[in-house]
Amino acid sequence: MADNDNRTEGDRFWPSEPPRSEPYALKGSSGLDWGMQSRLARVFRPSTSRTVMLAIDHGYFQGPTTGLERVDLSIVPLLGYADALMTTRGMVRSTIPPASGTPIVLRASGGPSILRELSDEQIAVSMEDAARINAAAVAVQVFIGGQFETQSVRNMTALVDQSQRYGIPVLAVTAVGKELTRDARYLRLATRICAELGAHVVKTYYCAEDFDTVAAACPVPLVMAGGKKLPELEALTMAYRAMEEGAAGVDMGRNIFQSDDPVAMIRAVSAVVHDSLKPLAAYDQFLRRAALSTQPADQRHAD
Predict the structure, then answer these.
(1) Which long-range contacts (CB under 8 A, 24 or more apart) does 277-284 make?
(2) pLDDT tens column, 41-88
(3) Is 203 a catalytic residue?
């Protein structure tokens, strides 16, 4: 029943206090709809506006990658340490526990295998199915400079159009062809094109020189791709430099699940990304946790 008593007096309405509306601070995202911002806030930790994504979508074009032969055994134990999981709908429905709570960045493009021209991708997942899965974002490969460059860009823009209807952000993944170099000039070109055409987040590679110009020229969050497996200290150093130079997070796969101790590695990466821990300190943390995990259970001490 309605409140018929005269309770309109007093300070509980705070008439002298201006209404509060907190702006969404993630780079380039303040003008997005509430649902889009809410999903991005699941991927990018609100306290830091940064993310540690765990990429395990390699199988969509190259089959069972080393370290991903049994996702249920190698990856599921890592979910609690990742801000988001980049994977495929097949792996989500077959293997990822719904109760894990880890936001899904869903691979939405595909087609060719490693035996064919990789840039010849098509949209492989509808935005409707992404909504069914409760994806926090969808990921699409964009091959700037590739043989099927225009087709891959159209894949992205088609998903961007659908994203406005469903409120699901689009992450554009810039791919580098065999004949293209990963220098700042190319990365500025590729990432800016993706952002200009509507991508809400862009994933790209790190370059040792002028990566800060790549991040500065991209008006939306830039997430660094982990790339090939590196020694742990090198991977942590690359992540640290990327964050210091303007990245909004990392999307690492092989540098985590191919590590000798994936749990210790993802925790060290998270410390670099969210706590700005320097590489040597993060590596020391990794070594201590890795050594601890090899001890018998009754000899371990909580860290």
Answers:
(1) 277/240, 278/240, 279/233, 279/236, 279/237, 279/240, 280/233, 282/236, 282/240, 283/232, 283/233, 283/236
(2) 999 999 999 999 999 999 888 899 999 999 999 999 999 999 999 999
(3) yes
Query: What is the bridge-based pairing of β-strands 122-123 and 109-110?
Result: antiparallel
119 and 147 Cβ atoms separated by less than 8 Å: yes
**Segment 1-31, tens digit of pLDDT:** 555 566 656 567 788 889 888 889 999 999 9
Domains for the chain: give ranges and CATH numbers.
Answer: 34-292 (3.20.20.70)
What's at 142, amino acid-wise?
V
**Residue 16 and residue 241: Cα distance in Å, rounded?**
47
CB of 119 within 8 A of CB of 177?
A: yes
Q: Catalytic one among 178, 203, 228, 229?
A: 203
The C-alpha atoms of residue 181 and residue 190 are separated, in whole angstroms, by: 12
Digit-coded pLDDT (tens) for 260-272? 999 999 999 999 9
